From TrEMBL:
Its EC number is 3.6.3.-. Belongs to the ABC transporter superfamily. It comes from Mycolicibacterium vanbaalenii (Mycobacterium vanbaalenii). It comes from the Bacteria. The lineage of its organism: Bacteria, Bacillati, Actinomycetota, Actinomycetes, Mycobacteriales. This is L-cystine import ATP-binding protein TcyC. InterPro entries: MetN_ABC_transporter-like (IPR050086), P-loop_NTPase (IPR027417). Keywords: ATP-binding, Hydrolase, Nucleotide-binding, Transport.
Length: 67
């Protein structure tokens, strides 16, 4: 998938693999219960999420042992 993305192919990927998404995405959309919570570049979403629920989710999936 990374090779396809680097070749310029447009893809829509639904995943809970946030490290993968951070590496390959040029745009991230965070959804909960079928609604968009926020969207933006991986840099913004992963480093400065605007929605508390996004921050909570990222902490749980990226740093699960920090709790």
């Amino acid at each position: 998938m990374r090779d396809l993305a680097e070749s310029g192919m447009t893809m829509i990927i639904v995943t809970h693999e946030m490290r993968f998404a951070a590496r390959v995405a040029d745009r991230v959309i965070v959804m909960e219960q079928g609604r968009i919570l926020e969207q933006g570049s991986p840099e913004v979403i992963f480093n400065a999420p605007q929605h508390a629920r996004t921050a909570e989710f990222l902490r749980a999936v990226i740093h699960p042992d920090d709790d």
